[in-house]
Amino acid sequence: MATVAGGSRRVRPIEWVMRAVVSAHAVLIFGQPVFAGVYLSGDFDGLRWHAAGANVVTSVGYVQVVVGIVAWVRLRRAWPFLATLALVVAETVQYFAGLGGALWLHIPLGVMTIVALVVMFIAVWWAPVRREGTDA
Fold first, then answer.
1. Which residue of 2, 21, 26, 106 sits 20 to 30 Å from the alpha carbon of 124, by its own alpha carbon?
2. Helix axis angle, 103-126 relative to 31-40, nearest 10°?
3. Mean pLDDT, to the nearest integer, of 79-94?
4. CA-based Rg of the chain, rounded to a whole angstrom?
5. What residues form the membrane-spanning segments (predicted)?
């Protein structure tokens, strides 16, 4: 049984699913600047890895939206969905900016999405999503 600071509380399955998806999303997104750096150092295969990574990261983001909706319905908490929606919108804009070669937008959005995802990772592990109206 997982505990929360100040007492024990059972962590619901949807909370574990949210944690797992956010964690996977965070791990995957950290590969993107690495692949971009490989490309910028002269290895042109890095661009192919960066593009494939973008497809995977974006897909996991969309899965996270679905998990956020389920968390909203099951736990009556909107923040996981709303935070994920904002993140995925930024990722989608960044994805198309990268395809279009708009690096002036692609790079800053990449930094912002990584920071936002790290904050969300901390939020779901530090203070799990609680059902509205419960103590702890």
1. 106
2. 150
3. 97
4. 17
5. 52-72, 79-97, 103-127
Q: How far is CA 64 from CA 6, 10, 18, 42, 101, in A?
A: 29, 22, 7, 34, 27
How wide is the angle at C-alpha 103 spanned by C-alphas 33 and 108, nearest 5°? 60
pLDDT in tens, 90-125: 999 999 999 999 999 999 999 999 999 999 999 999
- Indicate the pTM of the whole model: 0.86
Q: How many residues in the chain?
A: 136
Using DSSP, state whether 3 is helix, strand or coil. strand
Residue type, 47: L
**Structural domain spans, the chain:** 12-126
- Distance, in Å, from the CA atom of 62 to the CA atom of 95, rounded to the nearest integer, reads 13
Please state, in angstroms and rounded to a whole number, the distance separating the CA atoms of residues 92 and 87. 9
